[in-house]
Each structure stands twice: as structure tokens, then as C-alpha cells.
Give the backbone structure.
Amino acid sequence: MALTGCAKEAPAPAADVAAAETAPVTTAVPAETPDVATAFRTFLDENWAADLVRFPTFASYVGDKTNQDKWNTVSEAFQQESREISEARLAAVADYDRSQLDDSLGLSWDLYKLDIERQLASDDFRHHKFVIDQFRGPHTAVPSFLINIHRVGDIADAAAYVSRLNGVGVWFDDVIEQMRIRQEKNFLLADWQYPQMIAASKNVITGAPFDDTGEDSTIWADFQGKVAKLEIEDSEKDTLLSDAKKALVEVVKPAYDRLIAELETQGAVAPDADGVWKFERGDEFYAERLRWFTTTDLTADEVHDIGLREVARIHAEMEAIKDKVGFEGTLAEFFVFMREDEQFYYPNTDEGRAAYLAEATRLIDVMRERLPEMFGLLPKAELTVKRVEAFRERSAGKAFYQGPPPDGSRPGIYYANLYNMMDMPKYQMEALAYHEGVPGHHMQRAISVELQGIPIFQKYASFTAYTEGWGLYSELVPKEMGFYEDPYSDFGRLAMELWRACRLVVDTGLHSKRWTREEAIDYLVENTPNSVGDSTKAIERYIAMPGQATAYLIGKLKIVELREKARTAMGDAFDIRDFHDEVLKDGPVPLSVLEQKIDAMIAASNAG
């Protein structure tokens, strides 16, 4: 279950769940049921409840404490069971007469059926997909999930935290089993990815109680801090801390040691080829990934060509800004200037990082005040800006977002990776804050979970082209509102869009056209103002997540196309707030469904 925007690290699959494997497979109510709508809603609600049992980490993410002492599982038996449940649900959906549902529930019927079909098509390539990579996986999910998702408000929550620590061993053994299946099928990662995963894993088990370096490990520090805030007897706190320390030393560390050993074994025989073209049926797998992430039938060649055209367009707009600021030289030389001049960067110090977080927060606060000019639906959930934690910042992406649960128990979080401040230029701060915060991911995801009257599965549906397309579109809207007054900041907006255009080129280059990692890095360095470090980390992400990076610009282009289509067709009746509300009011949808929604809005306006 993919959850948030910008290649964030969603709760990863995890350990054995006894109750999960007995979760019901919901079947349809008999066709003669008089109220099809009520029966269909019941069907959806029961399946949602069953999924919360089967996927405890997802339940925690949405603020539900079902099985909060357990992880998910990636065992082969569980994955096969999941496929069979999906097949049963797909057959059951057909028993509900769509013609008897109103427009809203009819849309839910379409989305549910379509999403099951997508899941089954994805499962056809079950072992092509990486169970762990250097960008995300169980090795970093354990601390990031426990720290950021697992809330501790009472002694039961703390005991569940300890139980999850005790479940890490079973989870990791399942992961190792999956890694070995992939090795048998020659579905290994590239050789350079393994050292990064090993280093990140070792980071997690560094510090007390794993060793005597003097510093507390990330997990141990988190648990102690959470227990300290509980209003319980000291003896109860001591018991919890003792149990957690025992689990960390006797379960968590050995599990990480086993995982590291397997990573070392596979890394020694891994190939140096980077793209998924190296796999058997690699081209078919990549085509499926493009369909999954873009929700279109665009081919790799078509995506590549769109990218080249967009790169050329954005370069031309950047030339105009270069001339406006009076820079004498070529665009390539301007890129070097923007990449290297110290005026565009905060110091690579704790003070510089604090200044970055403060300015990002200020930008979001200013935008919040202006949102009603362009949007009717507004989020209620709070938003905070946070630095990516030290244990994962070397391998994590530039920025990402983690959404809030519907109960408001935690805010949405915009994570900024401040490991190297030279990868986070000031001139990109505005666009990045709008993309991850408002009116971008925070607004879209918070509104989605706060929506009333739609089935809950819709609030958490994963259609990347919609979600990331909205994020990129949200970088453009402030320009139309009069933001980006500083031409360098406007250049930063274009630089962010250029980055997404280049993604179309390099992602298809890597996975379809057999580019090497180095060739792809060189393309980004030559065609964008981003640093070598930024470009390297980005290419490594695209290798780990084939197809995902293409969703951003494909989605944004479709949203702009539909907006202008509606503006032209509706004339004076067009209201940008109504358009935005129509895009947001049903939760994430495929681009084809989004087009149907906008066409219906146009038709209703013209009919009126």
C-alpha cells in the first residue's frame, strides 16, 4: 500500500502476523439485495477492515491500532494469499450492479475495480520488484516507522512498541527469503547498491545498547524519550525499558547482522548493470511500471521523447532569466554559477540547517494565508518541516512528505534532506516548499483523508501520476499568484520542473535504452544546475524505483491540459477554485478518471 508523495518511505512490509492470515475474504452480497449502494459500501468497509488486520503497519499509519504490536509480512505464502484475495474481490465487485449506484459511488466502484486489476498486473512481476534497495526498505523502515509512526500515549502502546522490536527477526528472515528467491532468478540489484544498504543497516545498530560508543542508538533514544513522557509508575517504566533493551540486543541486532551478511553475500556476485532491462522479461516489467506510475499507456520511447521536448522548452525559458539577471555566458556556464556560487547556499553547519528549516516554514506560512484565492477545499491538519534523520539521510531523497492520519494525532511532515547543504540551494526553496507543503502534497493528502462521504479506501488510493502531478502543478500555481518575485527563485522553479523533465529522459534511458548510471548522472549534470551529488543520488533513486520518477511531469502536464480545456470550454463560467476542488474532492484518481471528472464538470456547466 503506497501512501505518500515524493518517494517517501512508506511503512514497509514486515514480520509474521498470525491474525492476518485468518483475515476474511469478503464476498459479494447476493444480487437480489434491494439496496445495492448500501451493500457495496458494506463490502468496501469490510474489506478495508480486513486489510487493516492483514497490514498492521498501514493500520498504524492511518491512526488505527489494529495489531499495533505486529508488522506486515513479505512471506511468499502471504503474498500468494494476497493475490487470491484480490482475485476473489475482483470477481465480487462484478456482482454489484454499477448502474444502480449514484455518480459518487459509481466512481468508487470504478476505482476499486481498476485498483485491484492494477495490483494483479503488478503481482505478475512479484519478484522483479525489489524487496530492499538502498533508497528504502526494512533496514531503514524499522527506525523510521517506530520513530515517526508508532505513537506511544500509554503503557499498551509502549508494550506494542517492544513487541514490534521482538518481531523484527521474523520480518527480516522473510526479507532474506525473498532476497534469495530473487538471486535464484537473477533479479539482483546493481553491485554499487549493496554497500549503501550495508552502511545504512550498520548505522541503525550503532550506539547503546548495541555497543559502548557512548551515544544512544536512534531506536533506543526514541523509546526512552517516549516512555519518559508516560504518566506511569517508575517501576513500570523500568520494566518497559528493560524489555526493550533485551529485544534490541537479543532480536534486533542479530536480525540486522543476518540481513547484513546476506547483503554482503549478494553484493559479492551482483552485476554492474543498472537498469531492469537486465532481467528476464525486463522490458515487460518496465512497461508495467510505467503503466503503474503514470496511469497511462505511454511507451518508454514516448515518455523519453516527451522528456526531450520539455527539456528544450524549459531551457529556453531559463535563457530568458539568465539574460534578465545580466549573466554573460552560456546557459551551461550559468548552471555552473548557480551550482557553485556560495550566495545560493546556507552554510553546511547546524546553524545553516536551522536557517533552512525556519525559512521553509516561513514560506509555507505565507502561502497558507493566500490559499483561499485559488482553492475552496482547504486542509485542517497541521504541517511541520523536519530534517531527515541522521540514520537515513545519506541514502534518502532530497525531500519527501509524510501525510497525517484522519484523527489529527500527528501533523503532516515535510522532510528536507540537509545532509549536504550544497544539495539544497536557496533558489529552489520556494518551489520545494510549495510542492511538499501547500498547495502541494500536504494540502492534497490532508484534504483526501479529511474528506467525508467517500469510502475510506479512496482516501488512501495510490495513483502516483495524480499525486506527484499535483505536487509539480503546485509549483506552477504560486507563479500565477505572483510568487517567485526574485528571478533566481523563479529560475529555481524552472530548475525543479527541468529536473522532472530530465527524469523522463534518464529513467527511460536507464531502464529501456540501457544507459549506465554514469551516463545518466552526466546527463543531469550537463542539463540542469543541480550538483553532482544531487544528480548522483537522484539517479541512484531512479535505478532503485524504476518508472516512479516519470509520474511527476506526466501528471502535471495532464492537469494543466485539463485546466486549459475547462477554461476554454466554460469561458466566463470558469472558476479556478471550482477546478481545483473538482481535482481534489474525490481523493487520488488515475489520469483517465481525472479527465472524465473534468469533462463532466464542463458538461454540467454548459448544460446550466
User: Anything to note?
Assistant: The CA atoms of residues 69 and 160 lie 4 Å apart. The chain is about 60% helix and 0% strand. The longest helix spans residues 234-267.
